[in-house]
Amino acid sequence: MTMRVFKHSLGGSLVLFFSLAALAQEVSTDPSLQFVKEDTEEFFFAAPSRGDDAIRMMGDKIAVIAARYSRTPDELKALLRTEKTLWLGKNGHLFYADTPAPSASIPKSSAVAKALQFPITQTFKLHSRQGSAKTIYLDFNGHTSSNSFWSNELGTNFTAPPYDLDGSPSSFSNDEHAAIQSAWQRIANDYASFDVDVTTEQPPEADLVWTGWDAKWGMRVVFTQNTMGLCGGNCGGVAVVNSFGYTNGGHLQPAWVFNKSTSGQAEGETGSHEVGHTANLSHDGVTGSEYYWGHGSGGQSWAPIMGASFTQAVTQWSNGSYPGATNTQDDTSLLYNRLVKVNDDFPKNFPAHGLSNIPWIAGTTSGSSFQVLQNGEFSHATDDDYFRFTTSGGLVTFNIGPNPKYADGYNINSVLKIYTTSVGLVASADTPDASPTSLSVNLGPGTYVLEVTSDGDTDPAPGFPIYGNLGFYQVTGSFAVP
């Protein structure tokens, strides 16, 4: 391995910095390219830098460094001059230091805390897709960083304390358990369409680092207090760009989350955002701002995950289809490079695959009534799931909403439709936001098909597009049976 030492002088401040951002870049979606090859050359710069200072620091080595991110030198220069949160680390890797969440989301009293959604004995055993070869480990227990990218930036090894809301880092209160559970639900929903296990249970270290020959890799995300002084103590989260799946890249981990809230939203949104950076996603901004804070109000409020999604009801991956977008990066395609697209759980469509190939809707029979309980997930924006049911006639009711296991961070605008077996549309229902959708109709005796699908919402404009309607859902309801 060739090592280069550079001691250029820099103008301007050399503050250690960060801000919700990530390098925009195009990466092949070929599933054989789900990793980042280790460089054969490392760099040792005198200090971290950004903007024109970073460009001067790299000198004629900019082509080698830009190639790490599938960028040309001119593209990297443009990014460094426009993204003020993008920094060049002392070893030549790029990283982002994200803007803190609004002060309103910082906890002031446990009186506004969420209720527990699981027993506290389960808080650190949560899994979204246990058994997957890819892992996003949400680490709330404190972390020691030694001989890593981060300790190199600070010039010393350090230990970050556990996640803490109440000033007692030695134990977790019920409020803290509730916030951790909510953060996990939000991140699990955001990554539901990828074959990755979002977990709070510590995996073997080998499961997080790709060696170049095995099928397993992942990312540790540490939720902590910024006592070590990263970014001068004034950032919401930090991450090394393009580090997810980097060969022997354990030294580039973890991603860090410093934002916190009693609701868990600041933690969850920041966690998803930082992992996005590690997979080469850049910031979703709007003309005049590096971050887009979203639009709309109430249940119709929307923001992109790679923007600033701390306060909006619906937060989704984006391809820059909102007005004034500064980034048209295809978020999900780039994430598929590292995490792999999950298989469609109900791939048979009606009528294309015939009625006999459509599964019966799940549930239980109680007397003459069938109680529906069907779980599913939308793994891509145009996902349609179909289910058969037979009724003896009368009132039929279906409801679609969050799977209770993933209640927080539900981001799906859903549609329900009922068809006859001859493909005649009987009834349909839609909602204008990501709230649950209900459909009730009186039907005659017979077999019918229920279609469950996602949809965008552009009324009132700009609303939110169908692109990011991904995640776990649950259908409930009832109907009479023979």
Task: Report what the structure shows.
By secondary structure, this protein is of the alpha+beta class. The protein folds into 2 domains: 98-339, Collagenase (Catalytic Domain); 355-480, Jelly Rolls. Helix content is 15%, strand content 26%. It has 7 helices and 23 strands. The protein has an 8-stranded mixed beta sheet. The chain has a 5-stranded antiparallel beta sheet with strand order 15-16-23-18-21. Strands 17-22-19-20 form a 4-stranded antiparallel beta sheet, with no helix packed on it. It is elongated, with a radius of gyration of 24 Å. The termini are far apart.
Q: How does the helix and strand content classify structurally?
A: alpha+beta
**Spatial gap, N to C terminus:** 74 Å
Strand order of the largest sheet: 3-4-5-11-12-10-6-9
Quote the CATH topology of the largest domain: Collagenase (Catalytic Domain)
- Number of helices in the DSSP assignment: 7
For this structure, what is the CATH class of the largest domain? Alpha Beta
| Helix percentage | 10-25%
Mean pLDDT level: 86
**Number of structural domains:** 2
Report the principal-axis shape.
Answer: elongated
Largest sheet: 8 strands, mixed
Q: State the CATH architecture of the largest domain.
A: 3-Layer(aba) Sandwich
Instruction: List the secondary-structure elements in sequence, H or E.
Output: EEEHHHEEEEHEHEEEEHEEHEEEEEEEEE
Query: Which range does the strand content fall in?
Result: 25-35%
Q: Using the CA coordinates, give the radius of gyration.
A: 24 Å
